């Protein structure tokens, strides 16, 4: 099984588990989210250990082994991205299975389990026509000032959405044109989505245009831009001036 096939299979299986847990109706709210996080994490770690025993794993829900920093291959995973949305019965949550090789997000699979969909780096997703007012996906609760500035400069429309994976995949799927985040994220929030977005021909970088580098000792990666390539220059001009 190739790395991308493995990532896809694990993301799908974890997503199916999360849907099953939620459909039981035994837990609600934060308790449901905690159970989903824990059980999906266990499944993912078990599958990776079995299939790629020599690789390292960085997971939001597991203790960090800093010896990974010297490793060439590191799986970077978020078992449940968008715990709040998952707990609220919404669709905009995801499972991230990414593989960074020498710090570069090369392989990725992002499951959108409530939509029965997995997008991965084996696909070159067809992008819809980007003509017209750009749609900018932002956090449901705290849209960044950079997104507000881009919306004003490009006469775009901000679209609130849940998890980072759901927002990134909205751009991959052609449902949005730009995803801007600032104010705090971690490597597991963006590794798999960035890999998939780049495979689909999208622009992906920090909001100052710097490259996204993974498997760092400090796992904070606080800002992110994913957009259609024709918008990248204009968006970066705005976000750089907003610093």
What can you tell me about this protein's structure?
Mg(2+) binds at residues 60, 78, 80-81, 189. It catalyses: adenosine 3',5'-bisphosphate + H2O = AMP + phosphate. Its cofactor is Mg(2+). This is 3'(2'),5-bisphosphonucleoside 3'(2')-phosphohydrolase. The protein is α/β, with parallel strands linked by helices and 243 residues long. The chain has two domains: 3-120, 2-Layer Sandwich (Fructose-1,6-Bisphosphatase, Chain A, domain 1); 135-242, D-Maltodextrin-Binding Protein, domain 2. Helix content is 38%, strand content 23%. It has helices at 3-24, 29-51, 83-87, 145-154, 164-172, 187-199, 232-242; strands at residues 56-59, 73-81, 94-101, 104-112, 117-120, 135-139, 157-161, 178-181, 203-205, 224-227. The protein has a five-stranded mixed beta sheet with strand order 1-2-3-4-5, with helices on both faces.
């Amino acid at each position: 099984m190739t790395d991308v096939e493995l990532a896809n299979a694990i993301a799908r299986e974890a997503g199916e588990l999360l849907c099953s847990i939620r459909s039981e109706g035994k837990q609600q709210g934060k308790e449901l989210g905690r159970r989903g996080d824990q059980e999906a994490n266990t499944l993912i770690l078990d599958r990776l250990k079995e299939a790629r025993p020599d690789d390292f794993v960085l997971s939001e829900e597991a203790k960090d082994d800093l010896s990974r920093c010297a490793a060439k291959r590191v799986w970077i995973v978020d078992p449940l991205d968008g715990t709040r949305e998952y707990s609220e019965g919404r669709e905009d949550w995801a499972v991230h299975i990414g593989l960074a090789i020498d710090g570069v997000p090369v392989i990725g699979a992002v499951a959108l389990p409530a939509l029965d969909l997995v997008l991965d780096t084996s696909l070159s997703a067809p992008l819809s026509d980007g003509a017209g007012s750009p749609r900018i996906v932002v956090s449901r609760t705290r849209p960044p000032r950079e997104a507000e500035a881009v919306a004003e400069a490009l006469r775009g429309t901000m679209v609130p959405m849940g998890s980072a994976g759901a927002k990134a995949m909205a751009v991959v799927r052609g449902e949005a044109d730009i995803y801007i985040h600032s104010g705090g994220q971690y490597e597991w929030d963006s590794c798999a989505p960035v890999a998939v977005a780049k495979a689909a021909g999208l622009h992906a970088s920090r909001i100052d245009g710097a490259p996204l580098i993974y498997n760092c000792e400090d796992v904070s990666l606080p800002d992110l831009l994913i957009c259609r390539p024709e918008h990248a220059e204009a968006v970066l001009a705005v976000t750089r001036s907003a610093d």
